[in-house]
Amino acid sequence: MAQLKEHACDFTLEVLGEGVVTAVPDRTLITLGTVSEGVDLISVQSDNAIKVAAVIEELEQSGIARESIKTTQFLMEPQYDYIDGKQEFRGYRVTHLLQVTLDNVTEAGRLIDAAVANGANIVTSIEFDTSEGAKAKREALIAAVRDAEAKATVIAQALGVSLSAVPCKVEEVVLSGAEPVFFKASAMSLESATSPIEPGQLTFRAAIRIWYLYG
């Protein structure tokens, strides 16, 4: 995108530059846990606590440090059926979700299988990230600036005008959804968790709006 505008002291050329950088993920965040249901709350809660404790123990035995396991959600909810327009109590549901951080992207499938074998029955998200994220974002910004400079140069040459050596204004454009999240499961059943989980690549995007004086 480019626009010519009359500036307070001169004329300006406005350009939008975009940059894209890819990176290989090296970290995995998995959110999984247990859901228990029944008519007696104490029994349901006890059942859930036993299963979660078994899952945590298995994760630790699989080499996950305790500080890499944290509770992200704990819910106790009454459940109802609606029959002929009337609300009828069905029982209780207890949900306990754990977020597990892996320092690799190769063990996600094995880890989920181990959790399932020890009582986990729900996964809500698998996210891949990289320790080089900050570097990739900076590189995307640099690429966006270069893209804007190239566009401005082409437009100026086509118009037969000269640009100021230094931009009079530079502004980063915030992009929605720019964070690198590659896989999201919505309360996915873990019965099929033995399938390989592929991390792919992470994409970092940046956009810069630059104004040049021209004459």
From TrEMBL:
Family matches, as InterPro entries: 26kDa_periplasmic_antigen (IPR052022), SIMPL/DUF541 (IPR007497)
Gene Ontology terms describing biological process: DNA damage response
Gene3D superfamilies, per the entry: Protein of unknown function (DUF541), domain 1, Protein of unknown function (DUF541), domain 2
One Pfam family matching this protein: SIMPL
Identification of the protein by name: DUF541 domain-containing protein
Source organism (scientific name): Paenibacillus endophyticus
Higher taxonomy: Bacteria, Bacillati, Bacillota, Bacilli, Bacillales
